[in-house]
Amino acid sequence: MTLDGVTYEKNDGIAVITLNRPEKGNSLTRRMEASFREIWSDVRDDAAVRVAIVTAAGPRHFCTGFDVSSAKPDEAPAENRPLAESVFWTSRQNQVWKPTICAVNGLAVGGGLHFVVDADIVIASETAAFMDTHVNVGMVGALENIGLAKRLPLGTALRMTLMGRDYRLPAQRAYELGLVDELCKPEALLSTAMTMARAMCKNSPQAMALSQQAIWGSLDRNLREALEHGWALLRLHWSHPDFVEGGRAFLEKRDPAWNPDPNARRK
Fold first, then answer.
1. Looking at the 3D structure of the chain, how many domains does it have?
2. What per-residue string of b and e applies to 226-260 under the rule 16 or more CB within 10 Å gives b?
């Protein structure tokens, strides 16, 4: 399925979402946000989809941010509404709790960093780089930059934010600092992402979803609150059929038959 500036494919439990405006640096437009809302809604609601991969077309750019030429000079790139009603680019922003891999093929700039900082796992081509240009065009570096500060040393996040286009974080350095989880040759980028995704497809969807919520939720809580939240999610899973199926399959030496329904309850 091809929507405005995005290609969406599903196969064997894996959804591949490809930014597809290489002639425009795979930049984002206001119309593309509706495409992403539709895509993430389908990822969330299709029980056959276990993992999502976000990548981009072409060898040079992952995403160069918001295409300012697609909006009027005085038009904001998002609605002037509360955050939860305005920004819908990523799985996290759409409340999708399925593993998401970001495969960065080239330069990631500004709004393109949404996909990086909200991914569960980030892999990057050795030729990739990361940059933020909000302040260069008179915009505030906030949402993506807060995500950078969660995944990078504070000084590096501020350096990217305040130096703008005069500082590019190379893929190798991003890997050393933890923004990138794995580096690979450009030609191996998608196959590496697919290998990771296939491994995740073997696991309980509900167990992965609740594990994601426990870990991401810990970023907003102190240690005691994070542990209590994790304990509540762990106990919630005890009533799901997958909790019994995993142990039973292990003892019977067979592949588990997972139940993709998050609302299923064992008898």
1. 2
2. beebbeebeeeeeebbbbebeeeeeeeeeebebbe
